Every structure is written in C-alpha cells, then in structure tokens.
Amino acid sequence: MITLTSAEMSTWMAALLWPLTRILGLIAAAPLFGNTAVPVSIKVSLGVLLAAIMAPAIPALPAADPMSMAGFLILVQELLIGLAMGFSMRIVFAAIEMAGELASLTMGLGFASFFDPMTAGRSSAVSQFLALVATMVFLAVNAHLVLLQALAESFITLPVSATPISVGAPLELVRWGARIFSAGLQLSLPIVAALLITNVALGILTRAAPQLNIFGIGFPVSLGVGLLVLSLTLPYLSTPIQNLFNQGIEAARSLVRAGAARTPATAPGR
C-alpha cells in the first residue's frame, strides 16, 4: 500500500504551484496570451501544461511549506516576476498603439475611436489596425515561442527562492517603460512628417488665396495624405516591429538578470 507523508505532499505541491504561479503571471500580462478573448480555462490549462513540462528542469526549490507565510511570500514574488516579464512585452504593443494614436490625431481621425478589449478602453481606428498588424507579426516571427523560451530560462537565471529579488528589477522595468514614447514617435514619424508638410502647404495656399475654405479642403486632404503615407510605409514596418519584439524579450531577460542579483544567500534547496 502506498503511503504519503505531509512533507512529501508539500514538496509535490510546491514543485507545481510556485512555477505555475510565475507562468500564469506571464500569461495574464503578456500580449496574445492575456487577451480577454481567450477563455480563462484555456489560460489555466496552458499554464498547467507548461508547468508540468518545465517542472523537471527547475532547480531545487526552497525548503518552505507552501501553506506557511514564507510559502505565501514566495508565491507572491513568483507572481510579480511573471507579471513583470509579460508586462515588458506588453510595453512593445503599447508603443505601437501610441504610434497609431499619434498618427490618427495628426490625420484628424481622433474622433474615430472604438472599444479595445485588450485595454478595456477606447483607442483610435489606426491604433487598433497597427495593433492587429503587430499581432500578426508577433505570430509570424514566432515571438510568442521565444517569449516562452525566455520564461523557461528565467527559472535557471532567477530560480524560485525565499530571498527577495533585487531592487534593480523594478528599475529595469521602469527604464524599459520609457521606450513607449520613443518607439511610438519613431514609428509614427513618417506620417507625422508628411502631414506637417501638408499642413504647411495648406497654410501657404490659404495665405495666397484667402477665398479658399481651409476647413472644407484641409480635412479631406490631410486624411487622404495620411492614409496614403500609411499604406506606403506599412510594408516597411515589419523590420522595426520585429526589432521591438527582440528588444522586449531582451528586456524581460535583463529584468530577470537584474532580479537575480540577490545580496543575501539563497535559501537552501531540498
């Protein structure tokens, strides 16, 4: 007859629970995985499957009872690590959406907004279009698989431990968050520059011929030029978007490396 002690049950529970928490944190925050259109049961099933696959390769876990306060603190820390890794990739999509917002405001399409299920807010039509293009590129270049690979590597670089992570990890995330504004402006710069030239030309035309109704011809001209420039630059956006995905994955890895710089000694394994 097979008998199990409480210590063995706690060991098996911790071997699955703590890695599963980090994985579910990434799935909840990462783009595509954390989309609200994906059912919660699918997300949990994917997390359990990944945890069962990665569990045999995870280093020794800390000697702490999962039901104790120390085990609860480890659980919270693993959740924060997973959320931070997923959020680092979500920043890339936020930069692309910001590029769409800047382009739509310059084109005069700021009023054309729709409900965005990912952010539970309203975003412009151009922003949602660029987000869909980024999602297709995200799948085409297998960035979702590379992100899962970075997650698996994080258990080696930053193993499950009772020791708090370094304060350098949140600082890395804050520094990477500034990329939203710079990357968003860089992606929208062709449209903004073309529309700036268009507005200057319309201003000169209105000055030369005051009888022209600038409000009557300005909006369709700006809208037409914006859509034309967007269609011309769209084939060339795959390379910078792919570079942003690479930078996002590297930011997740650097975040893990910064958190691995623990000053105290790691808790002994079982």
TrEMBL record:
Its main location: membrane. The chain crosses the membrane at residues 12-34, 40-58, 70-93, 129-152, 180-202, 214-237. InterPro entries: FliR (IPR006303), T3SS_IM_R (IPR002010). It is found in: Cell membrane; Bacterial flagellum basal body. It is a multi-pass membrane protein. Keywords: Bacterial flagellum, Cell membrane, Cell projection, Cilium, Flagellum, Membrane, Transmembrane, Transmembrane helix. GO terms for cellular component: bacterial-type flagellum basal body; plasma membrane. GO terms for biological process: bacterial-type flagellum assembly; protein targeting. Role in flagellar biosynthesis. Belongs to the FliR/MopE/SpaR family. This is Flagellar biosynthetic protein FliR. The lineage of its organism: Bacteria, Pseudomonadati, Pseudomonadota, Betaproteobacteria, Burkholderiales. The gene is fliR.
